[in-house]
Hints:
Largest sheet: 10 strands, mixed
CATH topology of the largest domain: D-Maltodextrin-Binding Protein, domain 2
Shape: globular
Number of helices: 19
CATH architecture of the largest domain: 3-Layer(aba) Sandwich
CATH superfamily of the largest domain: Periplasmic binding protein-like II
Structural class: alpha/beta
Strand content: 5-15%
Radius of gyration: 21 Å
Oligomer: single chain
Amino acid sequence: MMTVNPQPYSNTRPNIRMHDSEKTNLTDLRVAPFPYLPDSVGDQYKSLVQFITDEFQSIHPNIRLHLRPLNISDGFYAMPTLTQWLRSDDYEYDVVEVDTVVLGDLVSAGLIAPQRPRSSKRSDWHSAAATSVEFNQAVYAYPHLMCVTFLFTRDEKVAQVSTINQLIDVLGDKATVNYRLVGNLDSSWVLPSRLIHCSQDSNDSGSNSAAFALHAYEHSSFECVRKLARLCDRTGEENHCLDGTFDQKPDMPALLFANKQADAMFAYSEQLFTILKNGAPDDYNKIKMIPFPAGTLHNQPLFAVDAYVFRRNMSNEVLNAARAFVEFMATPRMQATVVASGDNTNRSSIPRYLLPISKNAYDEALLVHNRFYQGFFRNLTGFPLPNAGFLNTRKEMQRTLLKYIQ
Length: 406
């Protein structure tokens, strides 16, 4: 198993001694980070939260940072929760990190206001990240991290496919005893995302048709999703991709692939952490990854992006503190540190294998020699998931798709 030797920020910090008058002028900043990332250190993200807090406050000693502990059950996709956290009259947080698929809903609810990122900072953003935070020709968030659904394989023939039909040709079109392909489809978030991806990869690669796919259901895209579902069939009419097995046990596909019980797997990039943690030592050099070939024309990744949004009606002091924080988190070195598990200062760690939004992060010491970041992630281009309409249409899309593909 390949591990990375973290090169974290220096632990030597300025010898700052504040007078009592300076302590009373501290600006409090309350942030709720997005919790969907591997706990690579195994301490329920405590070291990551502490690392971010210490490093940020060493640079900004006049800002007192309060980070919410990371917990995936906290309701980051629930509008009532986000409303409670962000509403300006009784807010809980100044900054909340969200999946940009809910960005338009937050704008429509009047919870967030447009931002003005500095052009010198925006120039380092990945193009999909930059697109994901725009709504009605205004920027409403600061992107932080990204992920893409990949096809994981150890087979060179599988790694060469670019369409769903080519994948069927390689893996076979008949149900087998063994797993040909594993991955979760039993979700009102995942299944509609696959439809959008199928539509994107079955249309002109030079245009963003993802938003169109939310409302204009195309038979060809439904057929692509049906073909994907059939690749998960096993003898005896068993399909763990659709029957809830993988939804209830989210790490099971990665564990099956790690133990070579599945020929291929589709999942977000961060599942590579689970594979390398549980697989053979030579998997670092043997595993191949391509954006999942969802459509019939070409293979272009569809990006999921998480980004920081600000509550409305901040004081100037809090607004400046919030801007300082999001710019700090987007620096190439901090981006590399988070995705490469550089917050683990005690021992080597497997990277989290999320994708940085900073293009320059790939040149950082933690990533520059990693074969996955340099060989499979660095040059990816594509479009983000829609940032409006998904929240209110996903369940109906799921019901409609299930009727067609089951």
